[in-house]
C-alpha cells in the first residue's frame, strides 16, 4: 500500500501518469467491494470527506458530457448514492459500469470514494490510483488520494499529491488548506502558515484556511490566537462543525470545560461522517471527565475502538468481547494493555478489582507492553502475563496476544480501558490506598545504596518531557528553561530520570543554571522499567509532567508530584489523580502558562522542615 502511493508520486514527479493494469476489471472491483476486517483532542482538519459535495458536483458535470448512454445513468446514480451517504449502493453501481468498461476512470473514482467511506483503505488506494491514471486532468482525484494518504499517516506522500492538486488549481482554498496540513504535521509550522497566507488573501470569505491556521497556532501553544482564528472561521461559515470542534479543544485547554462541551455537542450534531464523529466523541469524553461526569465520559471513550476512527487499534483474540453487564465470576478473561505505556500503567489501577470479580475459579490473562511483563507478573501473581504484539494490517493497527495457548483460549477479552466503565464509574470508586505495582525490595535497597553516591540533599527524581515531542504533544510540556526556579531550590539533589536524549538540557542546567543533575549509573531509563520502578521508590520524591515514568512512580506508591495542564482528563474533575491518591497535583492556570505552576512547586520544595511529599488522603 505504502509502496503503491510512493510509486505514483515518483511517477508524478517525473511527469508520468499511466493507467494501472486492470486485467479482469470486474473481478478486481468485486474483490475491492468486499468488507475488510478491521490521536485525544486531535485537530479536525477541514479536508472534507472522501469525494466532497463540490467534487461530486464537478464530477457529475463531467459525467454528463459522456456519450455512452448506457453508462452515464449508472454513473449519475452512483454519484447520487454517494451524495446520500449510501456507499454500498455507490460501489455496486460503479462496479456495474466497470463490468461494461474496465477503463472508465469515473467509475474507478466513485468506487474509490465508496471503499474509503466503508473503511477499506487498501482497496480504495488501488481504485484512486487507477482513476488518477485514467483521468490525469481530474485534479480532484489527486486531492482525494492525498487526503487518504494523510489519513493513513503518510504525510510526505500526501504533501506531493496536494502540491499536484494545487499546481492545477493555484490558490484553491481547499488545496492550500490540505497542503498546509501535510506540511504542519511534518513540523514545518512557519511554512504551513506561508502556504495559507495567499489562499486567505485570494479567498477572503473562505472559512477553511482560517480553521487550519487555528490548528497550526494551537500546536504552537498560542491558544488566544487559535481561538480568534476559529471564531473567524465560524463567522464566515456558521455551520462549520470542524471549526466548532477545534474551538472546543482550545476552550478546554483554556480552562473553560463548560464552553468546550457546548461547542463539541454542536459539532457532533452537525457531523455525518462516522470517522469524524468518533474523533469528536473521544474529545467529548475528555471534556466530560474534566467536568466530573466520569461514567458518561467512559461511554464516549469507547469511540477510540470504532473501526472507522482513523487512530483506532483493533484487537484480535479468541472468545467473545466483554461487556459491562457480563458476570466475570469463574470466567477466563484476556485483558489487553492499550494506548501509550503510561496509560497501560495507569489503567492497571483496576486489575485488583478484576481479579476479585473473577473469583478463585476465574482466570486472568494480561497482554501488556513487553517491558512491563516482569513488573506486572510480580504485582499480579494470580494472572498470566505476556507481551502483546501490534501490527499494521491493511492500513489498520491490530493488536494480538501471541503468547496465548491454543489449548486454553480465553472465554472473554477486553481492552484494559473498556473495563473502566464497570470498575471506575466515579472518583469514589477508586481505592484510597496508594500503590498497586510491586517493585522488588532487593532492587529498591540497591538503589538506595547507589543514591548515596549522589550529591547530598533531598533526592528528587526529575522528568520534564515525553519521549514523543511532536508538534501536537509539545504544547503539553514546558521548555526546560521554565524549570529554572525549581532547580534553584537549595538542599535538593536532583536525579535525572528523563529517558531519551536529554544531554542538551543536562548541559544547560550545568552551564546556565549552575545545577548538576545527577544521572544514576547502570540503568537504561527507557528500557529497564522494572528497575525504574524500584528506583522511583528509592528516591525521596519524583516530580515531572505526566509521562510514563511519573505514572510508574505513582502506580508503585512512590512520593510523586505531577505538573498538570488544564483539561487533563486523568484528574476526572478532581483536584488530584484518583489513580495515585498519594500524588500531589500542581495545576497550570492555562495550557502553556507553566510559570505560576512551577513557582508553586519550587515554593513547596522550599517549605521549612522539608516539603510535604505525599498528598494527604482522607480517611
Radius of gyration, rounded?
Answer: 27 Å
Number of domains: 4
Tell me the number of helical segments per DSSP (H or I, 4 or more residues long): 28
**Given the helix and strand composition, which structural class is it?**
alpha/beta
- Give the spatial strand order of the biggest sheet: 2-8-3-4-5
What CATH calls the topology of the largest domain is: Serine Threonine Protein Phosphatase 5, Tetratricopeptide repeat
Our measurement of the CA-to-CA distance between the termini, rounded to an integer number of angstroms, reads 57 Å
- Mean pLDDT, to the nearest integer, reads 87
> β content, as a range?
5-15%
Low-confidence stretches: 1-38
Could you name the CATH homologous superfamily of the largest domain? Tetratricopeptide repeat domain
Q: Please tally the β strands and state the result.
A: 13
Largest sheet: 5 strands, parallel
CATH class of the largest domain: Mainly Alpha
Choose one word for the global shape. globular
CATH architecture annotation name of the largest domain: Alpha Horseshoe
Helix proportion range? 40-55%
Amino acid at each position: 500500500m505504502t509502496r503503491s502511493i510512493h510509486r505514483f508520486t515518483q511517477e508524478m514527479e517525473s511527469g508520468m501518469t499511466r493507467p494501472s493494469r486492470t486485467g479482469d476489471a470486474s473481478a478486481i472491483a468485486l474483490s475491492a467491494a468486499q468488507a475488510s476486517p478491521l490521536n485525544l483532542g486531535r485537530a479536525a482538519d477541514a479536508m472534507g470527506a472522501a469525494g466532497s459535495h463540490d467534487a461530486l458536483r464537478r464530477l457529475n458535470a463531467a459525467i454528463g458530457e459522456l456519450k455512452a448512454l448506457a453508462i452515464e445513468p449508472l454513473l449519475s446514480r452512483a454519484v447520487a448514492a454517494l451524495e446520500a451517504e449510501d456507499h454500498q449502493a455507490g460501489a455496486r453501481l460503479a462496479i456495474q459500469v466497470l463490468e461494461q468498461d474496465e477503463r472508465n476512470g469515473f467509475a474507478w473514482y466513485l468506487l474509490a470514494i465508496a471503499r474509503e467511506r466503508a473503511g477499506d483503505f487498501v482497496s480504495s488506494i488501488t481504485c484512486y490510483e487507477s482513476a488518477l491514471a485514467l483521468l490525469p486532468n481530474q485534479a480532484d482525484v489527486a486531492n482525494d488520494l492525498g487526503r487518504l494518504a494523510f489519513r493513513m499517516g503518510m504525510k510526505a506522500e500526501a504533501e506531493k499529491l496536494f502540491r499536484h492538486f494545487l499546481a492545477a488549481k493555484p490558490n484553491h482554498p481547499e488545496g492550500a488548506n490540505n497542503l498546509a496540513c501535510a506540511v504542519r504535521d511534518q513540523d514545518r509550522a512557519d511554512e504551513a502558515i506561508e502556504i495559507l497566507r495567499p489562499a486567505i488573501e485570494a479567498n477572503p470569505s473562505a472559512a477553511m484556511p482560517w480553521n487550519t491556521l487555528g490548528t497550526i497556532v494551537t500546536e504552537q501553544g498560542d491558544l488566544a490566537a487559535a481561538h480568534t482564528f476559529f471564531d473567524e472561521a465560524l463567522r464566515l461559515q456558521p455551520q462549520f462543525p470542524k471549526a466548532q470542534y477545534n474551538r472546543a479543544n482550545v476552550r478546554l485547554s483554556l480552562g473553560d470545560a463548560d464552553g468546550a462541551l457546548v461547542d463539541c455537542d454542536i459539532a457532533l450534531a452537525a457531523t455525518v461522517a462516522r470517522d469524524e464523529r468518533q474523533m469528536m466523541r473521544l474529545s467529548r469524553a475528555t471534556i466530560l471527565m474534566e467536568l466530573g461526569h466520569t461514567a458518561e465520559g467512559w461511554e464516549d471513550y469507547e469511540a477510540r475502538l470504532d473501526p472507522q476512527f482513523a487512530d483506532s487499534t483493533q484487537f484480535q483474540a479468541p472468545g467473545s468481547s466483554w461487556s459491562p453487564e457480563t458476570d466475570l465470576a469463574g470466567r477466563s478473561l484476556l485483558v489487553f494493555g492499550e494506548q501509550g505505556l503510561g496509560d497501560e500503567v495507569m489503567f492497571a489501577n483496576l486489575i485488583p478489582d478484576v481479579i476479585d470479580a473473577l473469583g478463585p475459579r476465574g482466570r486472568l490473562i494480561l497482554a501488556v507492553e513487553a517491558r512491563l511483563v516482569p513488573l506486572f507478573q510480580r504485582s499480579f501473581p494470580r494472572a498470566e502475563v505476556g507481551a502483546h504484539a501490534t501490527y499494521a494490517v491493511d492500513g489498520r493497527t491490530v493488536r494480538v496476544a501471541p503468547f496465548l495457548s491454543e489449548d486454553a483460549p480465553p472465554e472473554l477479552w477486553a481492552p484494559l480501558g473498556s473495563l473502566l466503565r464497570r470498575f471506575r464509574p466515579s472518583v469514589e470508586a477508586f481505592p484510597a490506598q496508594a500503590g498497586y505495582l510491586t517493585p522488588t525490595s532487593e532492587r529498591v535497597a540497591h538503589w538506595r545504596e547507589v543514591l548515596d553516591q549522589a550529591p547530598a540533599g533531598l533526592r528528587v527524581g526529575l522528568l520534564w518531557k515525553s519521549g514523543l515531542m511532536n508538534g501536537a504533544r509539545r504544547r503539553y510540556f514546558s521548555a526546560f528553561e521554565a524549570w529554572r526556579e525549581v532547580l534553584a531550590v537549595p538542599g535538593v539533589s536532583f536525579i535525572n530520570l528523563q529517558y531519551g536524549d536529554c544531554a542538551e538540557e543536562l548541559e544547560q542546567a550545568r552551564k546556565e543554571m549552575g545545577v548538576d543533575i545527577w544521572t544514576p549509573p547502570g540503568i537504561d531509563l527507557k528500557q529497564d522499567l522494572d528497575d525504574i520502578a524500584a528506583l522511583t521508590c528509592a528516591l525521596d520524591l519524583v516530580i515531572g509532567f505526566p509521562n510514563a515514568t511519573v505514572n510508574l512512580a505513582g502506580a508503585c506508591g512512590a512520593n510523586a508530584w505531577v505538573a498538570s495542564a488544564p483539561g487533563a482528563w486523568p484528574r476526572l474533575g478532581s483536584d488530584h489523580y484518583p489513580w495515585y491518591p498519594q500524588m500531589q497535583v500542581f495545576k497550570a492556570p492555562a495550557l502553556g502558562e507553566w510559570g505560576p505552576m512551577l513557582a508553586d512547586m519550587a515554593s513547596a520544595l522550599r517549605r521549612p522542615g522539608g516539603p510535604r511529599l505525599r498528598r494527604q488522603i482522607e480517611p
